[in-house]
Amino acid sequence: MRKRHTPKDRLITVALHVALAAGLFFAAFPIYWMLSSSFKSNTEIFALPPTVLPKAFTLEAYAAILGDPVKLRFFFNSYFVAGAVTVLTVLIALLAAYGFSRFNFRGKGSLNTLIISTQTIPPITLLIPFFGLVVSYGIFDTYVALILTYLVFTLPYAILLMTGYLNTLPRDLDEAVAVDGGTSWTALWRVIVPISLPGIVATSVYTFLLCWNEFLFALTLTKSTSMRTVPIGIQLLMGQHAFEWNQMMAMSVLGSLPLLFIYLVAQRFFLAGMTAGSVK
Amino acid sequence: MTRQKRSHHRLKRAVAPYLYLSPSLLIIGLLMLLPMVTVIGYSFQNSAVLRRDPSFAGLKHYQAIFADPVFWASLWHTLYFTCMSVVFHMTIGMVFALMLNSDRINPTLRNILRVLYILPWLFTAVIIAVIWRLLLEPNGVVSSVLMQMGIIGSKVEWFSSPATALHAVTFANIWAGYPLFMVSLLAGLQGIPKDFYEAADIDGAKAYQKLIFITIPQLMPIIISISLLDFIWTMQVFPLIWITTGGGPIYSTEVLSTYTYKLAFSSYNLSQASASAVVILLISLGLTLFYIRYQKAR
């Protein structure tokens, strides 16, 4: 055991705590500033010297956002698109992951490599052909365009995540179904899906977040205000109101709620998804 | 089971995986591989997308890009932005992970700090961009605190002066991206066997020697693979720069993604933008091959 009470040792412990506090300030201050600014009036935001706590606490920025049907529509669009993509992705990825995890077949290795490498395809490269396709199929400025494009980006991650999860489940469970004369399809729905809920939740969480955060395609493939999502809404707010900073911060707080909520409620699943791309 | 039944069963097992994979492969093939071929095609056409019968342009658009000083400036900014980001993501992630892993802090405090240190990760690029714009406003909190401390003499236009803009967006991206390293390294640290350190203690090793000879070599595989992924992803960053500076002022923060986007959707030169997109694709593919080879060798 290490000796704990020499003066030098105590000094190291104190220094460590000072460094931890500095780290906390670095990590959390910008977030704190967003939160506190969202409760200030627009004039107080630039008061000199800056006020750390809102001097005149007000909910006017939130009222302005939540009372505006145009902005509520941004939130609806984000929830709707992210929700739809999540359901589709999880279904399709589950089937693919089942194929990868429970069967040996020709081309399995190369398909797996293909899926891993699609994760790194630059979105900007796909943007131009997508724009061409979306315009020529007449789905520019529709939910369908966004849902289809997001699906392509979420699917590879979701397949890798789900395959990883299914590989942890013992094979004799579904082999028992085969012995009883059941098909692999029955085994999937009767045996695998019910015990895969943690994997399904982690995949859903990650898919939802990817969609919720997407900016480039939402910016380019939609045009009318009624089709815009939250990230674009925040950007529009910047142009429109000659910098209503308190409203921008309030909208940012509201736009971060799903992520914060998921993180606090399901930290385990959240981290599983966020590190999935890096840990094969 | 009769022989016929058994062979029928075997056939089913052979076809089944392809059936399960078919929806995914269809989507990836039609919406990812096909568009990649399409964009390569566009880059060799005149007035791609805009005209129904585009003529063949040869290497014209590639030549135009390579002759454009803004392209080279964008490439350089992308490299600077990416290298600085990856190096600092790694350093900050490592320092935070080591601090959190220390047995000198109380477990409750450790858990609370772990949650708080991850915070920047929970925010969308657009929101991060808006937060940093507010913080770095010439009249904002950073300027006024630095002025009070006497570090800067007058208000600085962090995002709108060519001298500081690239550093400012890089700083914002460093802040936004270190938690991936922190979380991965923290998991890695917990996986290093305790007896390595005990053996080192018996030999009388100092703390820094344990760090250099045990901790860092043990974490090396994680450091390399996360660095590669972080490099590939950071190279592709768009919204953070688009919202903070839009590539300006005077191209001083123009990166490959904003350069390509402007070619396509501000100048509507989709052919030239495609050529630029193909260049980005090739760089990414090169790095990806490297990454995959590394993962397989592991």
Task: Tell me about this structure.
The complex is a heterodimer of chains A (280) and B (298). Chain A is 75% helix and 0% strand. The mean pLDDT of chain A is 87. With 280 residues, chain A is mostly helical. Chain A has helices at 7-38, 42-45, 60-66, 69-102, 108-118, 123-136, 143-167, 172-179, 184-195, 197-213, 216-221, 230-240, 245-265, 267-274. Chain A folds into 2 domains: 24-58, no CATH class; 62-274, MetI-like fold, CATH 1.10.3720. With 298 residues, chain B is mainly alpha-helical. Chain B has a domain at 61-123 and 163-297: MetI-like fold, CATH 1.10.3720. Helices cover 73% and strands 0% of the residues of chain B. Chain B has 12 helices and no strands. Chain B has helices at residues 3-42, 60-66, 69-101, 107-117, 125-135, 141-148, 165-190, 194-202, 207-235, 239-244, 256-265, 270-297. The mean pLDDT of chain B is 89. The interface between A and B is large, with 89 and 94 residues. Chain A: It is a multi-pass membrane protein. Chain A: This is Carbohydrate ABC transporter permease. Chain A: It is found in: Cell membrane. Chain A: Its main location: membrane. Chain A: Keywords: Cell membrane, Membrane, Transmembrane, Transmembrane helix, Transport. Chain B: Its main location: membrane.
Spell out the blueprint of helices and strands.
The complex is a heterodimer of chains A (280) and B (298).
Chain A: H1 7-38, H2 42-45, H3 60-66, H4 69-102, H5 108-118, H6 123-136, H7 143-167, H8 172-179, H9 184-195, H10 197-213, H11 216-221, H12 230-240, H13 245-265, H14 267-274
Helix pairs in contact in A: 1-13, 3-13, 4-7, 4-10, 7-10, 8-9, 10-14, 12-13, 13-14
Chain B: H1 3-42, H2 60-66, H3 69-101, H4 107-117, H5 125-135, H6 141-148, H7 165-190, H8 194-202, H9 207-235, H10 239-244, H11 256-265, H12 270-297
Helix pairs in contact in B: 2-12, 3-7, 3-9, 7-9, 9-12, 11-12
